[in-house]
Amino acid sequence: MAVRLGDKGFMSYGQVWPRLGHAIRGLADDEFISMAFSSYKDEWKNQTIREGYTLLRDYFGGRGNWYPARSKPIYVLGFWFKPSIKGIWYVDGQAYAVAINLRKGQPLSEDDARFMARGIYELHCIDDPNDPVPLILDVSEQKPKAGRSLRPHLVQIEDTVPLATFEDSIREFLVALNVVGLSLPPPPDLDSVVDLFRR
To answer: Which is it for the CA torsion 176, 113, 89, 156, positive or negative?
Structure first.
């Protein structure tokens, strides 16, 4: 991160999330996209963000309703974690808990999606009376120099990784954060790691 900041290569997709509602309401035409994403002096950064947003706009197709998720990070064991979804998309009688990967150079595998979907289900779906389904939109470059494409991963609960596998992985991650001095250690008598994030 320090290197990227030093050479002015850092780029954030944070400006995309507040504008997802425009795409879903059918208000994001090409002119809107061009004007909305023009904050960087380096035009290639603006164009990269526009490309990703345009693919999302075309996928949502001006359909349904959008309910943004909380954007405030969650404080767990001395470390801040960003929410895993961007919002709930309700369309054609079904609710979807939507996570989005806009990192061009970090495509998601099927196993990545299955792992992410378990976390989305546990934290955003299981207690929601609207019974949303995890939907992961991968807007990365699937092959080098192929350009971005949008790959949706609609993962039913029976197709996610087992809860025990998810819990073990998150527990190991929290332990690793503590080892390098970035967080507090998980309580030794903690039965469910996921419960730390349910608040």
So the answer is: negative
Beta-ladder partners of 133: 96
Q: Please enumerate in sequence order all residues whose Cβ is within 8 A of that of 190, keeping only pairs 6 or more positions apart, or say none.
A: 171, 196
State the CB neighbour count (10 A cutoff) for residue 32: 15
Element at 48 (helix H, strand E): helix 43-60
- When pLDDT is averaged across residues 149-153 and rounded to a whole number, the result is 97
pLDDT tens per residue, range 116-130: 999 999 999 998 898
pTM of the predicted model, to two decimals? 0.89
Q: How many CB atoms lie within 10 A of CB 188?
A: 5
Nearest to 166 by CA among 195, 130, 129: 195
Strands (E), the chain: 65-68, 74-76, 79-81, 87-91, 94-101, 133-138, 151-154
